[in-house]
Each structure stands twice: as C-alpha cells, then as structure tokens.
Amino acid sequence: xxxxxxxxxxxxxxxxxxxxxxLGSFVSAACASTPEGEQKGDPFSPSAFLRIDPDGTCTVTxxxxxxxxxxxxxxxxxxxxxxxxxxxxxxxxxxxxxDEIYGRLGTGGSSSVRGMNRTLRNVGATARxxxxxxxxxxxxxxxxxxRTEKGKVVGADGKTLDYGKLAMAAKEVPVPQGVxxxxxxxxxxxxxxxxxxxxxxxxxxxxxxxxxxxxxxxxYAVCAxxxxxxxxxxxxxxxxxxxxxxxxxxxxxxxxxxxxxxxxWAALKGxxxxxxxxxxxxQEVSTASLRAGLKSAVAAHLEMPAGAKTIEANYExxxxxxxxxEPLAAVADVKSDSAELWSGTQAPDSARDQxxxxxxxxxxxxxxxxxxxxxxxxxxxxxxxxxxxxxxxxRVGKPVKLLWSRExxxxxxxxxxxxxxxxxxxxxxxxxxxGWSHQYIQTPGGRASDYNANAYLPxxxxxxxxxxxGSPSPVPTGAWRSVEHSQIIVAxxxxxxxxxxxxxxxxxxxxxxxxxxxxxxxxxxxxxxxAGWGEKLPKGMGRGIACFEGYGSCIAHVVDxxxxxxxxxxxxxxxxxxxxxxxxxxxIEAQVQGGFTDGLATALKAAINIDKGGAVESNWDGYEWxxxxxxxxxxxxxxxxxxxxxxxxxxxxxxAPAAIANAxxxxxxxxxxxxxxxxxxxx
Length: 683
Fold this sequence. Notes:
By secondary structure, the protein is an alpha+beta fold. 29% of the residues lie in helices and 23% in strands. The radius of gyration is 27 Å and the shape is flat.
C-alpha cells in the first residue's frame, strides 16, 4: 500500500503514541473510518483505531478477533477510559485483515490485552487532549483549566461542549506528543464489571458469522474428505452426484472432493451420492500404536541427588479436538485481479497473504472481512475453509460459500497433540525436594531437546530438568487453548500432588513453601482460605488444589468432587485469579468459567481416538463435552495485584484438570494417570 502521507498526516495518525502505535496508524482519514459502515457527517479520526462522529458516537476499531473472549469490549474500555467517553455512545467495528494499517492481527496466546493496552490507551488519551485543546480555543481559555467527563469537555465556569460538536475543530489541533495516561486510581471504566458491548447484536441474531453471509450470485460448496489422514482419491465415480437436482459441478481439490451446488441441501446430497476410492494411507495407525510410540520415546531420566525416597509417575494425555460451536466456513468472491472474503479467523492478516499467493494477486488487492467467531481456541488460526473457498471461487468464476459440517470439522481438525509425561523425583528425609525430571513426549514432536524446567514451574525446585521429544504420527496437530500448558501444567500439578503425599505433607502447604512468586502465593492462599481448605469432608468426597502462572496472570483452583462407584461428580470449584489489572471483571469471570468447563470436560469426558488412520469421534455423541448438568457451583474471585495487564483467555484452563484429578485422589486414595479419568483405571 502506498501511503502518500505528509509528515503532518503521519504525526496526526500516530497520535503521539510511539512506534508500536504508528505501525497500526499509517492510514488516511478516509481509510480510518469504521470498516463496517458509512461515515456519518465529517468525523474526527485521530487514528485508525478511533472515530468520533458529529453525533458524539465513538467507534473503536478492534484489530484482534473476538471468539467469545470479549476482546471487543476490553479494547473499547481501554480507549474509552482514557478518552473519558460516554460509554453509552461507544461502539465497536472489526478491522479487516490489513496489517499495514492495524499492525499484527493474530489473536492467540492471551496476547491481545498484553500487546495492545498501551497503544489503545494512548489513542484515547491523545484524542482527549485534542478535544480539550479545541474546546479551550473556542472558549479562549487555558486548556489546563478544562476537564473531561462522559463525552464532553467541561470548562472552569461549568460550560460544556460534547465531543461530537468538537469533532471538526479537533481535526485542526496539532497532535500532542507524550500524552499523560491516567493513574489507576482515577479509572472510571476500567475495573467496572461490564456486559459485552456487542451482546445485543449476538443475542438478536444481528451479529454476522460466516454461516450468515450471503452475496449476489453465490453458490454453495461442501467437501468429501478422506477417512484416514494422508489418504488421496484413487478413483471417483461422480455420475450419481451430478444427477442430484441443484448440483452444479464436482471439483477435486487438494484436501478432498468439492461439490458445488445451488444450495446447501443439494451440495450435501451430492456429497452423499459420490463414490470415491481412497488410497487408504495409515491404516495401521491407532491410538494404541501411537501411545506405544510415545512410551518407546521415553529415555532414561537425568541423574539427580539420591534421597530417602524416589518417586516416579507417567501420565497419558489424549488428542483433543477444538470442537468450536461454529464449524469452519468462508465465503470467497475471487475476480481476475482481486478477491474479497468473509470468515471468522484468528489470523486475518495471514489469511490475506495466503489468498494473495493462491490466486496470484498483490495482497493489497485482497480484502478479508473478519467476522465474529463462534469459538476459536486456536483452531481458527488455520481456517482451512478460507483458502479452499478462494480456490473454488477462482475455478468456478463465482462467489462460493464453503461450509464444513460438524463431522467434517471434528474429523479433520488440527488436534491438540497426544502426549506422554514421565516424571522422576527424589525427596530427603525431611520431605524436601532434591530433584525433578520431566520427559514431555508428544506427537508428532521433533528431535529431543532439553528445556528449562523452571519455565513451566512456579516452584523453586533444585536440579529441575525437562526434556521434550516426539514420536512420529500422521495426525495433524495445532495450538489448543493454552497450547503446551494444556499438557505440561496438567501433568506437573498432578505430580506435585504425588510428591506432597510422598513427603507426608499437605498438598497446599507443600506447594506454598516452594512457590517463587508472591503473586502466585497470594492467589493460592486466597483460594485455599475461601474454599475452606482443611475442613473434613463427607466420605466419598475429596478436595484438590492446583495453580498456574502464565500469560502475565496467575490463578489457583480448589475443586470438590464426589465419587460414587465409577461416577465422578464435580460439586464445587473455587478459583482466585490475578490478572494484574482487571479491565473487565465480568469478562474475567466468564473466561475462568469457560476455562474450567473445558478443564472439566477434558478431565472426565473428552478424547479423540484414532483407528485405521482416522479420527473415530465425529460429533458430540462420541466426543463428550461438559453439559449444563455437569456444571458445579463456581465461585470466582478476581484479585488484581496492579501493575501489568495480564492475559486471560488461556489462564483458566491448565490447573483445572489437575485440581479435579487431585480431588479424585483425595476422595479415593487412588491416582489418575490417564486422561480422561475413569475410576476403574485409577492406580
């Protein structure tokens, strides 16, 4: 993109916020308008992230994807706080996939707030300073005699001017440099429990998801995909499929056979009528063979000091599907020299680059309209539907809406890897840890590598070592909520409980004395106190504890379970979380609820199994997730320590399955070494 920007324009768009903001701000005033609508009059657009219309509406353009974690709301709150906006007049718009204007757009690793909080606060503060200067000029007073509140500038004499009425004048104000951000003690919006800004649109059906998109002349597509990973079509009889009313064409693509039709029903019926002979790759691959490969990759543990006791344990974690409520979907309209796409993706800038390469046009000619996502959890970093839809649109010469069914999505996912965790530790006669060895083996993995074990341990453990290795597998894998922490921390916290028992110590106190971070110690203490740690529970019940530090935040879970026969019921969960700064406590609570629900499901129910080289589970009947009837009482306490802005999307998961497993031990006296946990497999 050729900017053609003057020095003044560049400075104006930077808003005095430094290099990180400049990356997302080289855009003309016209381009800086809301991507999802026409301008209303002549707006004040001090940056690509903010527009103030003459009617006082403040529109914050959100550059990260919202997949239910509420980033639209938190980003708007960050800008509105420093702007002193009237929250009732704040709206959001989603940025298209243009990293030249908005900077990095990839959403994952709980990085949105951590990476963008200062940029967005600077956007609001810069705009506020310019509005104050405009009002002071009209009143012929010193700007320092003015203040701002709820979308207006207030003079020393009590006179007011709404931001909307100042929009035109503010555009002519020189851009201030090095604006002062608010002290946390003066926050009025940040820290206030706030409902999501787009709730009305979502619950009334006005929010646009990929499945909702319709463009003129659009045709529909679904794909028949191989039953085993790596298989390719050897023979195709599509004669019956072509006779299905509404079927337009049958097109082989790299990932299967696409059926193009006038409507979804015709496409699905055409798919059912296809006769495909698949090559049958990897028929010998199964869950059992893959698990055997993992176990064979476990090597001898590193030497550690001799102790009074040596403790060893191995944990097995399965493949997991992302199983988002919204399966993959995309609409593509590819022309000879350009393309426009509509989908929900965690990486719209990468999708733009991919489509540009695929159809052979400059990326400036590709528009990716990023919509709200019905769940992501890492799956929609690689939204395969986008590239497939673009390829099909180019080949048929029409806009194409490609839909993945639930079965298609679940059996062709990029799964969380299957893993094996082998531990060994020694303890002296006083119950002190002398060493720690963790071998983390996953599929497919890579060459054996030594890691700093303390990078994944909030504890001060001497002689701590960690080795990662892999075992070959044709099963495609990718990032899953909290990435490697979804495996490593679960295993670590289960083993910590085993070490506490071996040392003859209370699991809470054992952890507490080893913690390196005072922040983690505080949330652990608070969770134990609020949960009533140490109280005697009825027979058949147990209480477990676990904690996690990462993504700039920390959390502790205490879980109560009841075990009757072979049935485990989670009765109560208490969580204390420290996000540094709690922008939206209501959103944080929702993230912890969601993370724990995922933890409950994967602790007790969900797994993807492999047979004859393909995924066995295809829908919710086999890949069981936690239901409403499984949900326990949840008590969540947000206790920010101040200072940093931590992430939250990943934080609520890692310690949740471990706390459940540890509670099951407290109830039964037997350990869970295999997930999902079955009472009959406890040891």
